Amino acid sequence: MNVMIITQDLERRTRLVDFLGAKGYDVLVPPRRQDTVPMVKQARPHAIVLDLYVADPNGADLLCELRADGYAGKVVALSGLGTQAVLSKCWREGVDHVVGGIHMTSEPVDPGQVEAAIRASFRGEITQRAYLLWLRHGRPEGQDRQHWVQAEREIFGEQRSRGSTQNGGELRTEK
After folding, report:
1. CATH code assigned to 2-110+163-173
2. What is the mean pLDDT of residues 97-109?
3. What confidence tier does 79 reach under pLDDT thresholds 50, 70, 90?
4. Report field, pTM of the whole predicted structure over 0.70
5. How far from the centroid of its chain's Cα atoms is residue 3's Cα?
6. Which of 7, 22, 45, 132 suits a disulfide with 2, CB 3.0-4.6 Å?
7. Which helix (H) or strand (E) covers residue 33, if one does?
8. pLDDT value, residue 129
9. Domain ranges of the chain
C-alpha cells in the first residue's frame, strides 16, 4: 500500500517512514511542499498522513487543494495544540482520522497510532468485502472473523506493491 507522509518535521517524518516501511508499506515523501500535488497525481497514494503543522499553505489548505484536484484516497491528519482552528475545515474536506488533537502533549506522535488510523480508514471497504465473502460462501454462521481477516488480507494485499520506497522523489527498490 502506498502511503505518502507530508510533514516538515524531519524527526517525525523519519520515524513514520522507518516504522511504516518496516511494516511493509511503500512510503512516499515529497521532497518539497510544491512537489506534493504533482506527486500525489503521479503516485496516487492509497493514504496520506498529513501533518497539520505544514506551512505555506497550512495542512487544511493543502487538503482542500488535494481534494479539489481529485484526490479521493484516505487522509490521516496529525494534529496538536496549535491546529485546533483548522480541524473543522479538515473534517469538511474529508479527513478520515485525526491522530493527536487538542489533548496532544509534547510527546512525539506514536507511529503505531498512525498505522492504526490508516488501517481504520479502510474499515468500510473491509466490511463490504467481508460481507461479499460471507455471501459467496453461502452465508455460513460463525465465520465472521475468518471473512474479516480474509477481506483485510485481500484489501491490503491488493494495495501493497512489492517492496519499493519512494522518498524525496527517488524510487528505491529494497531487497
Report:
1. 3.40.50.2300
2. 69
3. confident
4. yes
5. 5
6. 45
7. none
8. 93
9. 2-110+163-173
